[in-house]
Write a structure and sequence with these properties.
Elements lengths: L5 E2 L2 E4 L3 H18 L5 E4 L10 H4 L13 H7 L9 H9 L9 H15 L2 E3 L6 E5 L2 E7 L2 E4 L2 E4 L5 H5 L20 E2 L2 E4 L3 H15 L5 H10 L4 H9 L12 E2 L3 E3 L4 H10 L5 H4 L1 E11 L3 E9 L3 H9 L6 H15 L5 E4 L4 E2 L12 E2 H5 L11 E3 L11 H7 L11 E3 L13 E3 L6 E2 L2 H5 L2 H20 L9 H10 L12 H14 L1
Parallel strand pairs: 1-7, 2-3, 2-8, 3-4, 8-20, 17-21
Antiparallel strand pairs: 5-6, 6-7, 9-14, 9-16, 10-14, 10-15, 11-12, 12-13, 13-14, 18-19
Helix pairs in contact: 1-5, 1-17, 8-10, 17-18
């Protein structure tokens, strides 16, 4: 237990993996330069005894979203399957024994604890910020029920930028940058099953696919119509989703450690079981096409159960420690009954929600927009790495289609960007010794949809951790540290990543027009 009234070099608030890795990078860089251990504190309002690592650990999100580089680019540049991830992220995945996609939350927690322990970082759990003390614009101390903790540089790794808000930083709500403050991405309550093998799931889904597409199977057609809430048009749409453009059944894809569900066959079965219409827009609850991580001991981790939230609700859930509501837990109890009927021996929900997004801070050194990403991101000479991912708005942004149509944009779909990483969108101008490393960083427009992905934020965190020490030992503020300074350190320590971002100029121009007009 950390005693109260303590002073630190760097304080981190929130334990999303990217923030934990940022503190570890800071500790290592300080030790490299001074041969001494830095005084670093990781604080979290959550119970770290349940695991360290935010939504990847306590939220149980075992299916990792990895960098998605086109095969042609990979072959041309000699890149691995997932490009060239940040060095600290590669190390974390290796220590957590990740072979490709699946991250076992238990192994992730163990790996992070080991890395934190070796870095000499203090931990403080279940801590609330009562108030902050500032020295001019700078953040000086956090006042908590456990005492006052002073620091020189601060890193916020909460999904809702809670420390930044306490320090007076303004934050948009929901998709306020699109003029839709109450529109928000859905939250997920991840659940883990045991006793249901990959083979059994394949058989189950294939059977449903065959039956739902067989018009002569009257019982199956009744189930499909029940899932559609007796809406014939929706029933036809659901049926059409079961086959691809060539007329082949959209069977699941099973890799070495993951399963991608491509059709709504299982969703139809569940929604018929629940007698609830399979329409997320109408009901706000949906068993979606699952991203499933395959873990040891015949454990499957499902990222599939979506719950609609408003911008206000997402903020409230984040402030409440991301705890699922009774309604959400009740829904997973129905999922448990449904899956046990197919042979699952247990269905266990995560202790916390996966909150994809809860607004973004305003007033960073250099905001990052979706069009910036499509233009290739940070200039190659100063970039810290490269990331590629689609603009993933799973569950949709309520109201954006109507607004886009009114402005003359028939589609809000844009190609995935391949963009270079920097840290300027994470550094706060008005509180210059504070950075926000999370989905709540200074993203505008579509940027948060790709920018919320952990692998990208781990690269930002690596940079911010090093920048914190550049600032600390140079008597400077975080906000003054340039990307190129961090890049030079990464090169010195042999941890630089390949830089290969490129511009999709026509698409970037179209998205820039869209983002500016809709704001």
């Amino acid at each position: 237990m950390v005693s109260a009234q303590r002073s630190y070099d760097v304080i981190g608030f929130g334990d999303e993996v990217c923030g934990v890795l940022a503190l570890i990078c800071a500790a290592r860089e300080y030790r490299r330069r001074t041969k001494k251990y830095a005084r670093i504190l990781l604080m979290s309002k959550c119970n770290l005894q349940e695991g360290i690592g935010g939504h990847l650990v306590r939220g149980g999100l075992a299916y990792l979203d990895r960098c998605q580089v086109d095969r042609d680019i990979r072959l041309a540049l000699g890149l691995d399957t997932f490009g060239d991830p940040p060095a600290i992220y590669k190390e974390f995945l290796q220590k957590a024994r990740v072979s490709g996609i699946a991250l076992d939350p238990r192994k992730a927690d163990s790996a992070l604890r080991q890395m934190l322990r070796e870095a000499g970082i203090d931990l403080l759990s279940r801590v609330q910020i009562n108030s902050v003390i500032k020295d001019g614009q700078k953040l000086a101390s956090l006042v908590t029920p456990m005492g006052t903790f002073s620091g020189k540089q601060f890193i916020d790794a909460t999904v809702n930028a809670e420390l930044a808000q306490a320090a007076g930083v303004r934050k948009s709500k929901g998709f306020e940058t699109f003029g839709l403050p109450e529109s928000e991405l859905p939250v997920t309550l991840v659940f883990e099953t045991q006793g249901l093998s990959v083979r059994r799931l394949k058989e189950l889904e294939f059977n449903y696919l065959k039956r739902f597409t067989n018009l002569a199977d009257t019982e199956a057609q009744k189930i499909l119509l029940q899932a559609a809430g007796s809406d014939l048009k929706l029933a036809e749409q659901l049926k059409n989703d079961l086959v691809d453009s060539r007329g082949n059944l959209k069977t699941l894809w099973a890799g070495n450690d993951y399963i991608d569900i491509r059709s709504l066959a299982l969703s139809i079965s569940y929604h018929a079981f629940r007698s609830r219409k399979l329409s997320f827009l109408e009901t706000g609850i949906m068993l979606d096409k699952g991203n499933i991580a395959v873990l040891d001991g015949e454990r499957l981790s499902w990222n599939a159960m979506l719950f609609a939230v408003t911008g206000t609700e997402a903020e409230a859930l984040a402030r409440g420690g991301a705890k699922p509501t009774p309604k959400m837990l009740e829904e997973v109890a129905f999922v448990e009954k449904w899956l046990k009927s197919f042979g699952a021996t247990s269905v266990t929900p995560a202790s916390e929600l996966y909150i994809r997004h809860a607004g973004n801070v305003i007033g960073v050194v250099d905001p990052l927009t979706g069009s910036d990403m499509l233009m290739g991101g940070v200039a190659p000479r100063e970039a810290l790495g490269t990331f590629a991912y689609h603009f993933d708005v799973r569950g949709g942004i309520p109201g954006i289609g109507v607004k886009a149509g009114a402005l003359g944009f028939p589609s809000v779909s844009f190609p995935p960007p391949v963009f270079n990483i920097g840290i300027q969108h994470a550094l706060i101008k008005d509180v210059p010794n504070l950075a926000v490393v999370s989905p709540a960083s200074g993203f505008e427009g579509y940027a948060c949809s790709a920018g919320r992905i952990m692998e990208f934020n781990a690269g930002v965190g690596q940079g911010v951790g090093i920048a914190a020490i550049i600032a600390l030992l140079g008597g400077r503020n975080l906000a003054t540290v340039a990307n190129i300074e961090v890049r030079k350190v990464l090169e010195q320590i042999g941890q630089s990543s390949r830089i290969y971002g490129f511009a999709k100029i026509a698409d970037a121009s179209k998205l820039q027009s869209f983002e500016s007009l809709i704001a």
